[in-house]
Amino acid sequence: MNATTIPSNGSNASNATGANVPGTDALLCVEDLQVRLPGLPPDQPILDGVSLTLQAGRTLGIVGESGSGKSMTALAIMGLLPEGARAGGRILLQGRELLALPEREMQTLRGNRVAMVFQEPMTALNPVHTIGNQVAEPLRLHQGLGRRAAMAEACHLLERVGIANAAQRLSAYPHQFSGGQRQRITIAMALACKPDLLIADEPTTALDVILQQQILDLLDGLVEEHRMGMILISHDLAVVSEYSDDVAVMLRGSVVERGATQAVFARPQHAYTRQLLAARLHMLEPHVPSAEEQAQERDAAAGAAAAAVWEAEQGARAVEPGPDVDVEGQP
Ligand SMILES: Nc1ncnc2c1ncn2[C@@H]1O[C@H](COP(=O)(O)OP(=O)(O)OP(=O)(O)O)[C@@H](O)[C@H]1O
């Protein structure tokens, strides 16, 4: 689909998306991106005419059903497409054409000017290296810091993302942290070189609601503080609605609608966007249990009560106390 055929709505939409012309001040401008993968028919591109624009200091949400091409768009921007993939169109970062960049230069950009946070933190963390070394590595590699200075900065970054006792934990390994802490560590790594563009691909999907909010608040604050641009990929419309200034809706490898988030969500133009929003509303509607569900709930409650009585009886029969349990307060 050509960029000009994509509906965009709302008064801010032109601000958010109208800078889709070379020479404007957009941080990122993706124009008519096509991606073909080997083994698939050439007339079935994985991405077909994706166009996006992101300004510094703003967050662009990308939503769409599973398999619509959200992650592939992110990987194309990062220069991390699968082996043998062919990409067409243009990806301009501060006016610089990324698709034409030699791999060596792209490597310099990655982790330096553009960084990515993945859904699964272990994708980015190396299990056999200490956290300190991993957070310090981009600082040594891209910023030329010495070992001591890089470690001090790594410690500061870990504190910044809320890792308690960061100085003592620099020598710990990824498996010694909880899932939420590991995700914070990958954010610290991604932010180490103060990138201009951060891509967060479902960064909090695996986490509980409280941690999810803490991490999104953290990213949101950093966008403002560093005037970064962030692409937030999420299947959660509520998250996108709260944290994104602009939104792009993807369907089968194309962007079908984009614009200022509040305008798109308030007045969706494309049938698929309406469908997505309707599905979300349906999920939010209070569920009135049927008579059968009420009976099942009563049975489950009775079963749970019987199990509690059994456990209490077992506890009372226990003669020897068990070993002390070390309860760590950290989530
Ligand atoms: N390495 C790969 N080789 C071949 N096809 C792939 C590969 N990775 C993804 N695809 C295909 O590309 C299409 C887009 O996938 P992508 O991962 O971008 O979707 P998505 O919108 O991010 O989905 P999800 O929300 O489930 O992560 C899908 O049809 C997927 O099957």
From TrEMBL:
One of its GO terms (molecular function) is ATP hydrolysis activity. Keywords: ATP-binding, Cell membrane, Membrane, Nucleotide-binding, Transport. One of its GO terms (cellular component) is plasma membrane. Residues 312-331 are annotated as: Disordered. Coiled coil: none annotated. Residues 28-277 form the ABC transporter domain. CDD domains: ABC_NikE_OppD_transporters. It is a peripheral membrane protein. SUPFAM superfamilies: P-loop containing nucleoside triphosphate hydrolases. Gene3D superfamilies: P-loop containing nucleotide triphosphate hydrolases. It is found in: Cell inner membrane. GO terms for biological process: transmembrane transport. Its main location: membrane. InterPro entries: AAA+_ATPase, ABC_Ni/Peptide_Import, ABC_transporter-like_ATP-bd, ABC_transporter-like_CS, P-loop_NTPase. Pfam families: ABC_tran. Signal peptide: none annotated. Belongs to the ABC transporter superfamily. This is ABC transporter ATP-binding protein.
